[in-house]
Design a protein that fits this description.
With 261 residues, the protein is α/β, with parallel strands linked by helices. The chain has nine helices and eight strands.
């Protein structure tokens, strides 16, 4: 029987999976994925609403709601008002993805920071952990999380791509680090060192599907079933069995997002 695995971050609401979603979910379940968290975070609230609907329709799918830092400059006050009921909806287990992206700067940095603070406040309001997208902005992100009291609800740095020095402030805040298929890439030495350094009880795994497929699927559309390859790599990296890696990351994800089971 396959080990119980949770994909802590995927975008099953994206058009990349339509109309093949039933087959994608079937392959995931066959591979041992017992839960998937669909991150409803796109250019507007369309993705958040779709994630909430999908979580309501599928017993093993949960949702997070937010707006990606790339797109927060487009948000209106009406969007913020609408987010309240979405965040409190049944089977919504997280807020985000939100955060800072200084690599692309698609939204001005001050606007990203303001929105990030408001999303942390929303997480505290509804008692949901924060799902963070951070790229080239670790010092500022950690400072915002500290200032806004994110420790009260916890959270995860999704698709962590920093090094050990970047990881330490998040771990000190009680946050988790989530590793995607990038972990398996040959040139990802800093990320691999961070994954070996972090305590085993603070690590999650994810696909970020349809993006970032692990080796040997790199370059293809990613899907939750492929998370097995990332877990295999993580287990080898840390010198533990696959089952131990699966059990730890699944327990961690359930603890962070208060999932059943």
């Amino acid at each position: 029987m396959p080990a119980a695995i949770i994909d802590s971050h995927c975008h099953l609401d994206f058009e990349d999976f339509s109309p093949e979603l039933p087959a994608v979910l079937e392959r995931a379940r066959a591979a041992g994925i017992v839960s998937m968290i669909c991150i409803g975070s796109g250019r507007d609230l369309t993705s958040a609403r779709a994630a909430v609907r999908l979580a309501a329709a599928e017993a093993d799918i949960f949702a997070a709601v937010g707006v990606h830092p790339h797109d927060v400059a487009r948000m209106t006050e009406d969007d913020w008002v609408a987010l309240g009921p979405l965040a409190a909806a049944p089977r919504v287990v997280g807020i985000g993805e939100t955060g800072l992206d200084y690599h692309y700067d698609h939204s001005p940095r001050d606007v990203q920071a303001m929105a990030f603070r408001r999303f942390v406040a929303l997480g505290r309001q509804v008692s949901r952990p924060i799902v963070c997208h951070i790229r080239d902005a670790h010092a500022d992100a950690a400072a915002i999380l500290r200032d806004e009291g994110a420790l009260a609800v916890g959270g995860v740095i999704h698709c962590f791509t920093g090094d050990i020095s970047d990881a330490r402030p998040y771990l000190d805040l009680g946050f988790y680090l989530s590793f995607s298929g990038i972990l398996t890439f040959k040139k990802a030495e800093d990320i691999q060192r961070a994954a070996a350094f972090a305590p085993l009880d603070r690590i999650l795994v994810e696909t970020d599907a349809p993006f970032l497929a692990p080796i040997p699927f790199r370059g293809k559309r990613n899907e939750p079933a492929y998370i097995v390859k990332t877990l295999e790599f993580l287990a080898t990296l840390r010198g533990i069995s696959f089952d131990e890696a699966a059990a730890a990351t699944t327990a961690n994800t359930r603890r962070l997002f208060a999932l059943p089971g």
